[in-house]
Amino acid sequence: MPYQVRRDFVGYGATPPDPRWPNGARLAVNFVMNYEEGSEPSMQDGEGHTETGLTEAHGLNQVKSGRDLAAEGMFEYGSRVGFWRLMRLFQERNLPLTVFGCALALERNPEAAAALRASGFDVCSHGWRWIKHFELSEEEEREHISRAVASFQRTVGARPEGWYCRYGPSVNTRRLVVEEGGFLYDSDYYGDELPFWVTVDGRGHLVVPYSLTNNDGKYAGWMGTSEQWFSFIRDAFDMLLAEGARTPRMMSVGLHMRLIGHPARAVGLARLLDHMMARDDVWICRRIDLARHWAATHPYPGRGLNESG
Ligand SMILES: [Zn+2]
């Protein structure tokens, strides 16, 4: 039977598996830097307007069609300045980082792509462009996925092994990602704190859930200062760490270069990294290492979580 996304309100329930993180860690933490600037809806790529998402600009004040030069500059801040600041914060601490990369965006900043290639950070495909996958036809979506894979091979020198859509996926995305081949996991799911397997067209495929809660996107809504963001994410970390004595989990923290890359916000990220590094029972890891660990210690059992038969 062809793969269909089905809803599962049960998941692991009261007895989640022990992830057996390396060195007995109580918690696995993965930081994600979204690299989107240069792939967003824009005049140069044909959308007829400038995107303002997750910038200082309030959508209501923006032009409805045509170029919005203020918003364009706010996007460019991310790739010109924020990128390098976030790279520094992780590299000077020898911490790993995962990039959710929009392929076209990296094509437009070869210097950043070269820095990523040299860094050892893993790149998970955030699509060919920042677009709504659920508005694409199946054929268009198939083409976007294969264009993204080819593009990353050119820019960062390796194909992505993970997939995560900007906005929500379509009902076809997971099947098309598996069909493309070479993807170990996708992160198009928000409903759990541990990876799990699904069966897609007879094959095991790993889902590594992501979080818009532990995310700097909060700055574009109600959150104001770096102290608020720091304490919000630190509280999640501290609670998961305490629970991890019995039920270890994973934690994703999402970052955007044009948002938390500004100094007034980046200082809260630096504080968070130092808070986490003070613990020796935490595995701060790349997303691909987390996925590979799961595949090695909890291999696909022949059927996915809560799939019968
Ligand atoms: Zn994103």
Summarize the structure in words:
The protein has one domain (26-297): TIM Barrel. Helix content is 35%, strand content 14%. The protein is built from eight helices and nine strands. The strands form two sheets. Strands 1, 2, 3, 8 and 9 form a five-stranded parallel β-sheet that branches. Helix 6 runs parallel beside helix 7. Zinc ion is lined by residues 34, 36, 100, 126, 166. The site of zinc ion has 5 residues, from loops.
Shape descriptor reads globular
* Total beta-strand segments: 9
Class from helix and strand fractions: alpha/beta
* Ions, cofactors and other bound molecules: zinc ion
What's the average pLDDT? 95
The total domain count is 1
Share of β-strand residues: 5-15%
| CATH level-3 fold name | TIM Barrel
Helix count from the secondary structure assignment: 8
Extract low-pLDDT stretches.
Answer: none
Text of the CATH class: Alpha Beta
Tell me the major beta sheet.
5 strands, parallel
